[in-house]
Design goal:
Oligomer: heterodimer
CATH topology of chain B: MetI-like fold
CATH architecture of the largest domain in chain A: 3-Layer(aba) Sandwich
CATH superfamily of chain B: MetI-like
Order of helices and strands of chain B: HHHHHHHHHHHHHH
Helix content of chain B: 55-70%
Number of helices of chain A: 21
Structural class of chain A: alpha/beta
Radius of gyration of chain B: 26 Å
Strand order of the largest sheet of chain A: 2-1-3-12-6
CATH class of chain B: Mainly Alpha
Number of helices of chain B: 14
Shape of chain A: globular
Distance between the termini of chain A: 36 Å
Number of domains of chain B: 1
Number of strands of chain B: 0
Largest sheet of chain B: none
Helix content of chain A: 40-55%
CATH topology of the largest domain in chain A: D-Maltodextrin-Binding Protein, domain 2
Number of strands of chain A: 13
Radius of gyration of chain A: 22 Å
């Protein structure tokens, strides 16, 4: 394997220009919002410039929930693409077990991925039985409360610095005709916001007990009771936000219609595209300003097996390129996410990204729920959460009881 | 034949199996495909609904576990309830409105062709397009509500898609707008097939027009009604795309439907066993409705 690889690498070097092994590599992903598309275009540019292969963009619109079934269908149906995005964790677990994914272990050992990928848990999520099957490319954390300075100025109150201040400032915003908390109506957003509140308000230990050890007693306990109460409060604050997609909700902050939004750091890409400056036009509170922790979920690229040596060589070249310093910087600056290697220079990073990097360096990190719970369990929690968030009469106690039941059944 | 008459060989009735042999041979591929794809696929689904298959199918039987979980899942129960409400209301309204429109068109009005085209036109759109159009129309910030408000009624409220109690009404409006035209055309064809002499006879007898429709015309149109009924019901059971385009099941889970539960569990939740259990239940529901109907039709024909 190693031999073939180096052989192929040399031959491709020799034949560079003659394009003998040029492959059109189709890469599927669900990055279609403004900031996301700009970020993935960086990968395409670097791939086209640095190799003789061609990046064929296979963007699938409609977020991960729509895109993943299409990707999985193509892989299991015998029409694999050259490479595809998944989130870190258990989404592609069974595809790997079924032997449908290219083993990247040799490349990873050669380039020393173990040493450069930080935090190492990202690579662990790509590993099954000691073999590596995916390239982590970025770190996305959910734990951010975004605040629109514009909205707070118009309402005549100071921009809050933590969750309690945020709740306290809400009446002033409402008086000014603004929506305190923008929230898209999709289940994953509501569930994600709950997860953020859980880490911030219940604390790391309780969160880990529930999400990692699946301890239903803690889920039914007093720490989480507080989270559900806070979530009910947040629900009232977001009652009038009639949007579905997360970027529409972020747009409410950009235009000053809403005060805040609990959303992952990908929201930052939208602020950037709109030309807003962190610290001046908007600010960010990691861990709701209460508990400065970030979870290290994110995106990874998998390369389905294709039984074609030339395509395989191109896949390995892309895998290697995605982890290179140049690509990591170019991609993550546009995406608003953090790089997966600590040895890159992010001078151009804005305030919010720098705060994220600091937290990352200090080691206040948690795995993402995608890494610890199966899509099935996640789905059940989402069903429950979306009902809770959209029905003002749904009590916090009832929601907590159902939540504990799902955790008890989790696998 | 002549040999038989002479009695040199016993008369053998032709074996039934070989009657129309060539057409039977010609039908074999279709029968095989039918058996393989429909029956085989159905059996496969039912068998795997008793396993704990996740992303990929595997034969690890767990008994009725998937069904127990299914019937204790709130989202599934809400889906069933929604489908029942949507189904009954949409059935009644499409049939009534369709017939009413057809009867009005049948009164030899002017511009009949134009009206027929207008009413049938929505049917040319897919449910996805219909859903998207109505999603915008019912959007409180851009649609009907904002238009009425800007005309000087600032307190006018009409946002069914953002209200769990009214969301089914929003779906019904779009569904009826799309589907009524087709039923109207079918009914119109039925009305046209009724002999002019019947109308003349009832006129001679002095029966009012509305009464003629109810006691004479509608009973005569029974086959047309049955066709329309089957078309409408099958459309209701597979209701999916309209919901996806308009509400994606929201707000909360208040507009979820069974087909969407099946899709979500099969593909996004990567739980084949659970999805198969749900689709088997959908099949059972359809069978409960269809078998008595098919039985009745069959018996009528035999008589």
């Amino acid at each position: 394997m190693k031999k073939t690889l180096s052989l192929l690498a040399t031959t491709s070097l020799i034949s560079a220009g003659s394009a003998a092994f040029a492959v059109d590599l189709e890469v599927t992903h669900w990055w279609t919002s403004g900031g996301e598309a700009a970020a993935v275009a960086e990968f395409a540019r670097l791939f086209n410039e640095n190799t003789e292969h061609t990046w064929v963009d296979g963007a699938i619109a409609g977020a991960g929930g729509t895109a993943r079934p299409i990707m999985i269908g193509r892989i299991t149906g015998g029409d694999p693409m050259g490479g595809t995005q998944f989130n870190h964790g258990r989404q592609a677990e069974e595809l790997v077990e079924a032997g449908l994914m290219l083993d990247l272990t040799d490349l990873a050992e050669e380039e020393g991925w173990r040493d450069i990928v930080n935090p190492p848990s990202l690579l662990d999520s790509c590993t099954l039985d000691g073999r590596i099957y995916c390239v982590p490319i970025n770190i996305h954390s959910w734990q951010w409360l975004w605040l629109s300075h514009h909205a707070y100025e118009e309402a005549g109150v100071d921009v809050p610095t933590n969750w309690d201040e945020f709740v306290a400032a809400a009446p002033a915003l409402e008086e000014a005709g603004k929506i305190p908390l923008a929230m898209g109506g999709q289940p994953w957003q509501q569930n994600g916001a709950f997860g953020v509140m859980a880490i911030a308000l219940a604390g790391i230990e309780a969160w880990e007990a529930v999400n990692v050890d699946q301890n239903a007693e803690v889920a039914a306990g007093p720490e989480f009771a507080r989270v559900f109460e806070a979530a009910a409060e947040a629900r009232a604050l977001s009652a009038r936000s009639n949007v579905q997609d997360w970027n529409q909700a972020t747009n409410m902050l950009i235009t000053g219609q809403a005060g805040g939004q609990i959303m992952g750091d990908w929201a930052q890409g939208e602020f950037q595209v709109a030309g807003l400056v962190a610290g001046e036009d908007y600010s960010c509170l990691p861990g709701l300003g209460v508990n400065e922790i970030i979870s290290t979920g994110g995106d990874a690229f998998y390369f389905p097996k294709v039984n074609n040596a030339e395509t395989e060589a191109a896949q390995l070249e892309l895998a290697s390129l995605m982890l290179s310093q140049e690509a990591q910087v170019a991609f993550n600056l546009k995406k608003g996410s953090l790089p997966v290697r600590g040895d890159v220079d992010l001078e151009a990073a804005n305030d919010c990204m720098k705060r994220g990097l600091e937290i990352l360096a200090s080691g206040n990190i948690l795995p993402d729920a995608n890494q610890t719970l199966s899509p099935d369990t996640q789905g059940q929690i989402e069903d429950m959460m979306t009902e809770f968030w959209s029905d003002q009469n749904y009590t916090a106690e009832e929601a907590q009881r159902l939540y504990a039941e799902i955790i008890a059944r989790a696998d | 034949m002549s040999r038989a008459r002479r009695g040199t060989a016993p008369v053998r009735p032709p074996i039934r199996l070989f009657r129309n042999l060539s057409s039977k041979i010609a039908a074999i591929p279709m029968v095989l495909v039918g058996l393989g794809v429909f029956v085989g696929g159905t059996i496969w689904t039912v068998v795997y609904s008793f396993t704990d298959s996740r992303l990929l199918p595997r034969l690890q039987f767990v008994g009725f576990e998937q069904y127990e979980r299914l019937w204790s899942t709130r989202r599934w129960l809400v889906s069933i309830e929604n489908l029942a409400i949507y189904g009954i209301v949409s059935l009644v309204f499409t049939m009534c409105l369709g017939f009413l429109l057809a009867a009005l068109l049948d009164r030899k009005i002017r511009f009949e062709d134009t009206f027929r085209t207008i009413f049938l036109y929505p049917f040319a759109l897919s449910f996805i397009v219909t859903g998207l159009v109505w999603q915008w129309l019912l959007n409180p910030d851009f649609g009907i509500q904002s238009v009425v408000r800007s005309m000087g009624f600032p307190n006018f409220n009409f946002d069914p898609l953002y209200n769990s109690d009214l969301v089914l009404i929003g779906l019904l409006i779009a569904g009826l707008w799309q589907g009524t035209g087709l039923i109207m055309v079918i009914m119109l064809a039925g009305l046209r097939s009724i002999d002019e002499d019947i109308w003349k006879a009832t006129r001679v007898d002095g029966i009012p027009v509305w009464k003629t429709y109810i006691i004479v015309i509608i009973p005569m149109m029974k086959p047309v009604f049955v066709t329309a009924l089957v078309l409408v019901t099958s459309g209701i059971v597979k209701l999916y795309d309209l919901v996806v385009a308009m509400t994606s099941g929201g707000p909360g889970i208040s507009s979820e439907v069974p087909a969407k539960y099946v899709y979500d569990t099969l593909f996004t939740r990567q739980n084949l066993g659970q999805g198969f259990a749900a689709s088997t239940m959908m099949l059972v529901t359809v069978a409960i409705i269809l078998i008595p109907w098919a039985y009745m039709q069959f018996r009528e024909k035999r008589q």
